[in-house]
Amino acid sequence: MNVSVPLVAILGAAVWVAWRYMGLRAGHIAVCLLFGFFLAATSAAPEIRRLVAVFVEAFSQR
After folding, report:
1. pLDDT reading at 3 higher than 70
2. Distance (Å, rounded) from C-alpha 31 to C-alpha 50?
3. Cα(40)–Cα(48) distance, rounded to whole angstroms?
4. From CA 62, how far away is CA 57, in angstroms rounded?
5. 6-26 burial code (b ≥16 CB/10 A, e <16)
């Protein structure tokens, strides 16, 4: 599965829209980034990647 760059771009666009139009503050963005960074270093990271892969495959088959 090779969707990391497009998925990051989509999530980045979603964060930008939330920041621009929904009142997300820079502090909230920083907390989300730090949470993702530290979550990637845990033992839950492989399971999260598998879950994302399942969702991507399910939506790409439609």
Report:
1. no
2. 24
3. 9
4. 9
5. eeeeeeeeeeeeeeeeeeeee
Give the pair of three-digit tokens for residue 12: 């980045």
pLDDT of residue 2: 54
Distance CA 21, CA 6 (A): 22
The pLDDT assigned to 29 comes to 85
Q: Are 49 and 57 in contact (CB under 8 A)?
A: no
Q: What is the DSSP secondary structure assignment for residue 23, as one 8-state letter?
A: -
- Which amino acid does the sequence have at 43? S
pTM of the model: 0.59
Please say if the pLDDT value at position 51 is more than 70.
yes
Residue with tokens 């939506």: 59
Tokens of 32: 């989300």
